[in-house]
Automatic annotation (TrEMBL):
Protein name: N-acetyltransferase domain-containing protein
InterPro entries: Acyl_CoA_acyltransferase (IPR016181), GNAT_dom (IPR000182), N-term/lysine_N-AcTrnsfr (IPR051556)
Tree of life domain: Eukaryota
One Pfam family here: Acetyltransf_1
A GO molecular-function annotation: N-acetyltransferase activity
Domain N-acetyltransferase: 1-132
GO cellular component terms listed in the entry, alphabetical order: NatA complex
GO terms classed as biological process: mitotic sister chromatid cohesion
Length: 153
């Protein structure tokens, strides 16, 4: 919808949005419909043999930095309701709040044995986090670094 809206603008009108954020452009061009873009992190997955090393937390913190660089102040994410470990990480360690539940939503899983994706239906939580400043980075111990290097081999 936004691509069509921008395509209808003349060159002078387009130039006025040159330095505008996506949110500002959307508010101006799509306001009557009350649609607005969000940043949504979906299908974050860490290989089973690389879990419990802080990689999920680091990936989320990187997504927070990207969210800020795009001019947004809120990061949304989807997590399967039965993925208790991920839900705990997002809500207790990273400060996300549950804002919605979607029942039997399409979800994608990776089949590591076959090396392909499988679509399923699962209950999903939508979580959100307001980001006001750059996220803090975690320090990695030498043991963690050694474990990560061993996994890379």
């Amino acid at each position: 919808a936004i691509t069509r809206a921008v395509a209808t603008l003349g060159p002078k009108q387009r130039r006025q949005y040159k330095d505008a954020s996506v949110e500002e452009i959307t508010n101006d061009l799509l306001a009557p419909k009350r649609l607005y873009p969000i940043v949504l992190l979906s299908n974050l997955s860490v290989s089973p043999n690389a879990r419990r090393m802080g990689l999920g937390q680091q990936l989320c913190q990187h997504a927070e930095r990207i969210t800020l660089s795009w001019g947004y102040k809120t990061l949304h994410l989807k997590v399967e309701a039965n993925n208790h470990a991920a839900h705990t990480l997002y809500t207790q360690k990273l400060g996300f709040d549950k804002i919605s539940t979607i029942t039997q939503a399409p979800a994608i899983r990776v089949d590591p044995l076959q090396g392909n994706f499988v679509e399923i239906n699962a209950d999903m939580y939508i979580l959100a986090k307001s980001i006001m400043i750059e996220p803090t980075t975690t320090t990695t111990s030498s043991t963690d670094k050694q474990q990560k290097q061993q996994l890379a081999i």
